[in-house]
């Protein structure tokens, strides 16, 4: 019998392709032949490949899911920050519009009263000019906290802009809103805010109105704004009510 060469070979039979591995064992003076069909040789490789592909797919799905969660969380955070006033932590004008529309719809659906109140700190520009904008920020922050303590959890307050705030009082008619407004006015009048050792005091003017049939958010706010203008024109540090004209 001719002596074969050690090495790996491939040959084809009528039914299948084969891999042949030949190794000479000098200690025994033997030749070791390992003959393996192609399908059998590649079966483990295929299984390993499929398993790795499955693991990669599972990892990719998990990563995409976690990435989507992170993106959604950041989107919610950005949207929330976009609707909040950075100084007072209250909803800003954009946030108020969204909340207020829901409050008006609820009031109409449940046939309940709803009152709107605009507040403006009196002579606030003078305070800023005299003591600086940081002092003004301190007063705005303190005033916002004071107003929140006068309201229920269901009431809505936002910083309308500058030294102006707006409040929606749910299930509250104009007489009830006036009691709340007087409470806020007295609290502002009697409260002293301290900035770098300096005592600061402010007063507030308030205009309020009640939601009537046919009102839009714009018409409701416009009447509250007119009432606020009346409070300013009549000496400030007071509450004025604007009544809707009959249809």
Could you describe the 3D structure shown?
The radius of gyration is 39 Å and the shape is elongated. The mean pLDDT is 85. The chain has 2 domains: 1-82; 93-241, Alpha-Beta Plaits (2-Layer Sandwich). It is α+β, with helices and mostly antiparallel strands and 247 residues long. The protein has helices at residues 38-82, 93-110, 124-131, 133-149, 174-190, 217-233; strands at residues 7-12, 17-25, 30-37, 114-121, 156-161, 164-170, 193-195, 198-200, 204-210, 239-241. 49% of the residues lie in helices and 24% in strands. The protein is built from 6 helices and 10 strands. The strands form 3 sheets. It has a 5-stranded mixed β-sheet, sandwiched between helices. The chain has a 3-stranded antiparallel β-sheet with strand order 1-2-3.
Q: Which structural class should the secondary elements be placed in?
A: alpha+beta
The biggest sheet, with number of strands, parallel, antiparallel or mixed sense and barrel status, is:
5 strands, mixed
For the record, the CATH architecture of the largest domain stands as 2-Layer Sandwich
From the alpha-carbon coordinates, what is the Rg to the nearest angstrom?
39 Å
Oligomer: single chain
The coarse overall form would be: elongated
In whole angstroms, the N-to-C terminal distance is 118 Å
Into which percentage range does the β-strand content fall? Answer: 15-25%
Summarize the helix and strand pattern as letters: EEEHHEHHEEHEEEHE
Strands, count:
10
In CATH, the topology of the largest domain is named Alpha-Beta Plaits
**What do we call the CATH homologous superfamily of the largest domain?**
Reverse transcriptase/Diguanylate cyclase domain
Mean pLDDT: 85
Which class of the largest domain in CATH terms? Alpha Beta
Strand order of the largest sheet: 5-6-4-9-10
Report the helical percentage: 40-55%
Low-confidence stretches: none
Helix run count: 6
Number of domains: 2
């Amino acid at each position: 019998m001719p002596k074969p060469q050690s090495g790996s070979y491939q040959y084809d039979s009528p039914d299948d392709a084969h891999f042949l591995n030949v190794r000479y064992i000098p200690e025994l003076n033997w030749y070791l032949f390992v003959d393996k069909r192609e399908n059998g040789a590649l079966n483990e490789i295929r299984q390993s490949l499929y398993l790795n592909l499955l693991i990669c797919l599972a990892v990719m799905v998990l990563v995409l899911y976690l990435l989507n969660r992170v993106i959604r969380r950041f989107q919610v955070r950005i949207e929330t920050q976009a609707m909040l006033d950075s100084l007072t932590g209250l909803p800003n004008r954009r946030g108020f519009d969204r909340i207020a529309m829901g409050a008006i719809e609820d009031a109409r659906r449940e046939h309940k009263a709803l009152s709107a109140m605009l507040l403006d700190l009196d002579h606030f520009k003078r305070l800023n000019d005299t003591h600086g904008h940081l002092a003004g920020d301190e007063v705005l922050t303190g005033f916002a906290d004071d107003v929140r303590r006068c309201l229920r959890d269901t009431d809505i307050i936002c910083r309308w802009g500058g030294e102006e705030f707006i409040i929606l009082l749910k299930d509250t008619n104009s007489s009830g809103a006036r009691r709340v407004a007087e409470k806020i006015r007295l609290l502002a009048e009697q409260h002293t805010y301290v900035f770098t050792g300096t005592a600061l005091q402010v007063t507030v003017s308030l205009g309020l109105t009640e939601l009537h049939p046919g009102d839009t958010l714009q018409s409701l706010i416009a009447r509250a704004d007119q009432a606020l203008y009346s409070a300013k024109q009549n000496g400030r540090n007071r509450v004025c009510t604007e009544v809707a004209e009959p249809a």
